[in-house]
Design a protein that fits this description.
single chain, 450 residues, alpha+beta, Immunoglobulin-like, Deoxyribonuclease I, Chain A, 2 domains, 7-stranded mixed beta sheet, 6-stranded mixed beta sheet, globular
């Protein structure tokens, strides 16, 4: 075929195709879609409300959104969400495949952590109360985390000294882990008995505060009106007239002691954040939450102590003590691979020490290297029989369950109660909680007036 003829055939074919193409059926391909989560802005000023939107969520009632510091990595590790909500912004009963919510001072979601510390955060869309991530987006909160410069370690407050007194009281702090039924309730009862406690500050009692007292043969329980302070005792307990921060414990034959129990916010948890790479300023900023939680209680109990009332403060404080994060302990823990541990001025324990509260365990065991006294954690669950403890490789062990005393109270001894003699002074098997307990043998001068 000649060159000219080939060119003519090609032209004819092109012309014919141009006529036929409009008559052929057209196949369209829809754009790929899937779950998405977005925010109304990428950068927020400090304290500014954050509006989160989502679409094409998987369609489970308990699908949820969670905000985490980006440095903490994806959800599912030991660091909990800083803010979170089910998509129905309620109790996770309604399927909400698309929608919008706003976190703010007025509505900080399911975890009251507001305002956010300046830094970068990732918001995840997660499936059915679990940690499967189907979408995420990143935001930044601007602002200055700098507060007053922490004092150098040699200016940190020491643990105050005790007075000499006579009346005996054995006080125990015990987070019994969701009502004490996660392992065996009998293990919780045995722990209190073996500690020979006379008053117990109970955290996470669920509906089992009276059940625990009854199993011990005790008739005295106390729960504050706000449900925050929970105590059981071998001795009578009564509410003061003008405070929800403590209860009166009455000795046989007369005399009273003010006893209190706290369970502070668990997240953000400073040791985990430091492990995950947070700055000192970031962690100190977030510790303002614990200071605020303790403000009214600290004022009320300090006023009692100034009036020569014996005060015993028990609790799961969910924050370590500056007495444990020192140069000496940092050197020891860094040698064990915990490179993030450093001398750290935990504000709450420093505030308590400056107000005159004495850490009873550190009074009895002044050397935190020789006696770390870790209460978090034996595992969740702890070791049972041949079953090892459920612990992650990067778990941070610490002493966060504490007994403080103030006023005319003296610590004679203090012991950790837990799953093994390697980690505790008093052993109970099987151990029934994800926290170890602490029992302190005290001498007090009771209040005989008012």
């Amino acid at each position: 075929m000649s060159q000219l003829l080939r060119r003519g055939v090609l032209v004819a074919c092109l012309a014919l195709s141009s006529l036929l193409l409009p008559l052929l059926p057209v196949s369209t391909v829809a754009a790929q879609s899937g779950p998405a989560v977005t925010t109304d802005k990428d950068v927020y000023d400090f304290g500014e409300p954050i509006t989160v939107s989502w679409s094409d969520a998987p369609g489970n009632p308990k699908d949820w959104v969670g905000l985490y510091p980006t440095f903490a990595g994806p959800p599912g590790g030991s660091s909990g969400a800083t803010l979170w909500d089910y998509l129905d912004q309620g109790d996770g009963q309604t399927v909400t495949p698309e929608g919008t919510l706003t976190w703010s001072q007025q509505r900080p979601g399911q975890r009251d952590t507001w305002p956010l510390a300046p830094g970068e955060y990732t918001i995840y869309l997660l499936v059915d109360d679990g940690y499967e991530v189907v979408a995420s987006t990143t935001i930044r909160v601007t602002g200055d985390t700098d507060g007053p410069e922490p004092p150098p370690e040699d200016e940190w407050p020491a643990n105050p000294s005790d007075p000499a007194l006579s009346r005996k009281l054995r006080a125990m702090t015990f987070n019994i882990w969701v009502g004490g039924t996660q392992v065996k309730f009998g293990s919780i009862v045995r722990a209190v008995r073996k500690a020979r406690a006379q008053v117990v500050g109970v955290q996470e009692p669920g509906d089992n505060l009276e059940r625990l007292a009854n199993r011990l043969g005790w008739k005295h329980t106390f729960t504050s009106d706000d449900g925050y302070t929970n105590l059981i005792s071998a001795y009578p307990l009564s509410a003061p007239k003008r405070s929800d921060e403590y209860a009166w414990l009455r000795f046989p034959g007369g005399g009273r002691v003010a006893v209190s129990s706290v369970h502070l916010t668990p997240y953000p948890y400073g040791p985990y954040d430091l492990r995950d790479g947070a700055s000192t300023d970031y962690v100190l900023f977030n510790e303002g939450t614990h200071l605020e939680e303790m403000k009214s209680r600290l004022e009320a109990l300090s006023a009692l102590a100034e009036a020569e009332v014996p005060v015993v403060l028990m609790g799961d404080f969910n924050v370590p003590s500056h007495l444990d994060w020192t140069s000496a302990t940092a050197a020891a823990r860094q040698a064990d691979g915990e490179d993030f541990v450093r001398p750290f001025p935990w504000p709450l324990s420093m505030s308590l020490a400056e107000a005159g509260f004495r850490d009873s365990f550190r009074t009895a065991h002044p050397d935190p290297v020789q006696q770390p006294g870790y209460t978090w954690t034996p595992g969740y669950p702890p070791p049972i029989g041949d079953q090892p403890a459920n612990l992650t490789d990067d778990e941070v062990f610490d002493r966060i369950d504490l007994i403080y005393v103030h006023g005319p109270v003296r610590t004679m001894s203090s012991r950790v109660v837990g799953e093994s003699y390697r980690n505790a002074h008093i052993r109970v098997r099987p151990w029934g909680s994800d926290h170890r307990a602490v029992v302190s043998n005290l001498r007090v001068r009771p209040l005989y007036r008012r």
